Amino acid sequence: xxxxxxxxxxxxxxxxxxxxxxxxxxxxxxxxxxxxxxxxxxxxxxxxxxxxxxxxxxxxxxxxxxxxxxxxxxxxxxxxxxxxxxxxxxxxxxxxxxxxxxxxxxxxxxxxxxxxxxxxxxxxxxxxxxxxxxxxxxxxxxxxxxxxxxxxxxxxxxxxxxxxxxxxxxxxxx
Length: 174
Fold this sequence. Notes:
The structure is a single chain. The protein is mainly alpha-helical. The chain is 64% helix and 0% strand. The chain is elongated. The termini are far apart. The model has no long low-confidence stretch (mean pLDDT 79).
């Protein structure tokens, strides 16, 4: 019989085969042989703003020129061009206005940063106002307490009622 340290030849062969299969599987990236997603006419038409119908994507442009541009896109897709190549062609011919969003560089970077800057500026204004409101309320409360401490007391029965009234008014005002 085999001892525990010895393995049968078939087990060694199976483990060697499994090791080779693992090495082969690891050496080829998952997407290396996978085909690039197919570019469709609809994807391209939705990714380009129409240069002849302002404010509309190419697929929504009702003009005859828009139909001609959609036909050009169809021919480019059939020729095997990718989405990026077709979009770049339209940018080269018609300018960056055909992009649905401005590219984040140069002056167009302001279009990307202004909403965030406005948000932070508004947050800063809110913080300053809250701090001013809370500090003025605290200052008024300190002045009221100071006046009560410095006010002369008559020592009569009305004094207790007056103190109670002031205390309740302060609690109500907070």
